[in-house]
Amino acid sequence: MRKLWHRSKFHLSALMLFLPAFYFAQQHGAFSTATAVGAMPATAPAAVALGPWRVAVSAMPGLPEPGADGALRRFILVKIVEGDVDTIRGSFLRIGKPRNIRTLGALAYGNPHFAMAQVPVPEGLTGKEELWLTIEGWDGTLHQTSWPLAAVTGQGADQETKEGNR
Fold it and tell me: Which CATH number applies to 37-160?
């Protein structure tokens, strides 16, 4: 019996380390979200041509969440449907047209094919705002396009200014 215990205690200790990780991932929905497999939500607007790429955007479901600075932020997903992602230097998202190159917006991060950005939601939305996407190539060229904010989020301006809770 003692010999069996010494042989199997390594495997049992490894099992005890991994069981909480699987439980945590299952409780927090890591295996059930659409973003885990790279699929866009059904309410996403159609992909549009933007320079040499085809791009689709969609908002994460739910209300905007407060950021570290207290401002409301909305998680926006950016998916490069077609084109060479190696030629993209950065993707920037902003509600409202960027005034100049220094105000391009929130930088998208993550997988180059399927990135995410935390876009600040301005106060006093009227319902006519647009979500602007700017993609900068490694050659320095900027490509811009926009979508109506209501089409991307699936909500009206009154819902965008409410704070969500987790």
Answer: 2.60.40
